[in-house]
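User: I'm curious whether this sequence folds into something compact or stays loose and floppy. Could you predict its structure so I can see for myself?
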Amino acid sequence: MVGIALLLAGLLAYLPLAWLRNGLAALLIAAAVGMNLFNANDYRLLAQKNNEMMYEIAWRAPSLKPGTLVITNEQPFSFYYTQSTLKAELNLIYPHSAQDQFGWTYARDLAAAKTLALNPDEKIEIPGMVKNYSGTISDIVVFQLDEDGCVRFIDKQSWFIPKEINEYSLENFSNQSNLISGSDTSVVLDQSLIGSEPEHGFCYYFEKADLALQQKDYAAIGQYYAQVQQKGLHTENGYEWAPFIEGLARNGQWQEALTLSEQVIEANPRYESYPAFICTALGKAATEAKDEQAASSVLDSLHCTY
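Assistant: Here's the prediction. I'll summarize afterward.
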């Protein structure tokens, strides 16, 4: 950059007209300043996206089993935040021993390096810049990264599994038990490393509702949904309503579950699989429903054949 600046300055000096030299110099300086501001804003947005992603993972997974391997799809920011960078952040956030470090890899890279089999004891070795990752199939958790949505834990029961994950059937290897969900475990992120906690928007309540579903704390899901409604929060991704629909039903709030289900189906006509996912979730909830009549009425209203 210094060489280019000196070259341009030298070329400008050969121009015979002072007003032309000054005008071109002003334009070049303005362009350079503008480019620096543009790049600075890009880095700011990248840092903000990384901040949101890490907090969303922490909201969903208050603790991770040491030695867990996180697998995700790639995003536009993946070029800047490499697997090594994200692995390092994960190991800074969650407590672990030197022998049980966390790993992070992208779905495509893992699939290219190794064909996985449904054997929980099968070894996985991933080379790293500082330390290699070593674990087994049972140590895997899969998250979906969405540039316009929330970080989402994925397993074989998830709605709408993204192509990059489904292409390699990685949802079949995702082990929810690696997401330790006890009430006495809650990671605290170092703000000097990750940044300040983002505002509690829709993704906060989504992650908390998904965690509560894992904990079978259905009353909490009802409370989270009430706060989402009160604050007027929304998402364009219909599948992000999944924990609320199932949680409301399991909490006995069948009418709210029906209303939300109808809204999701109506807002997402292109996704023909949504009604089936909703019916499956509500059908499972209905088997444990205290108000069987209300559950049956909701299933009938949605034309479920579960």
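Summary: The two ends are 65 Å apart (CA to CA). The longest strand covers residues 140-144.
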